[in-house]
Amino acid sequence: MKKIKVPLEKKEIEELKVGDEVLLQGIIYTARDQAHKRLVEAIKKRKKLPFDLKGAVIYYCGPTQTPQGRVIGSCGPTTSSRMDSFTPILLEAGLKGMIGKGSRSDKVRKAIKRYKAIYFLTYAGCGALLSEYVKEKRLIAYKDLGPEAIYELKVKDFPLIVGIDASGRSVYEQER
After folding, report:
1. Staple partner for 145: which of 59, 102, 149, 172, CB 3.0–4.6 Å?
2. Residue 63 is part of a domain; what is its CATH number?
3. CB-based contacts of 163: which residues, under 8 Å, 6+ apart?
4. Per-residue pLDDT for 174 more than 70?
5. Of 32, 36, 96, 169, which one is the catalytic site residue?
6. To the nearest whole number, what is the mean pLDDT of the chain?
7. What's the pLDDT score for residue 176?
8. pLDDT attached to residue 125
9. How many CB atoms lie within 10 A of CB 134?
10. Alpha-carbon distance 95 to 58, whole Å?
């Protein structure tokens, strides 16, 4: 397994290949459909974003309520294709990594290749287990969205698999 840190660097991204297993350290941001919509609207209106996209990683996740004594509730990935219409704009603005589950559109795959970004997969159905890799959680934007608000998560050894690499190769194409 390769250990990588956020913010992601171009050289590091380009060295990762489809199917590589990765342990991620650093700060990532949760965001789902409605948060993506607001981020893209802010970009289009040239407004300040709630976090710097340069080298950032967004986790397609809406954590459950935090149990007493825990950092975060269950935090499994959501279906990534729901964010496909927003993704190319975020990549153009500096986003370098995404974490989710499932395949991505051809348009997103091409944008990942164009902007030298990366798409990671993580284990669906394992939200409770994944929560153990989250060491800190902080609400940073869109509180009104509840679990779909944007949270800053500090993660250590968060387990991932490269789903689409910076060359545009997809694990889903290789299966075919």
Report:
1. 149
2. 3.20.130.10
3. 18, 103, 104, 119, 120, 121, 170, 171, 172
4. no
5. 36
6. 95
7. 46
8. 85
9. 23
10. 8
Confidence of residue 102 (pLDDT cuts 50, 70, 90): very high
Which range marks the domain in which residue 59 is found?
Answer: 2-175
Q: Considering its fold, how many domains does the chain have in total?
A: 1
Residue 123 to residue 126: CA distance in whole angstroms: 6
**Are the C-beta atoms of residues 118 and 160 closer than 8 Å to each other?**
no
Cα 109 to Cα 98: distance, rounded to the nearest angstrom: 12
CA gap 14, 124 in Å, rounded: 25
The dihedrals phi and psi of 120, each to the nearest 5 degrees, come to -105, 150
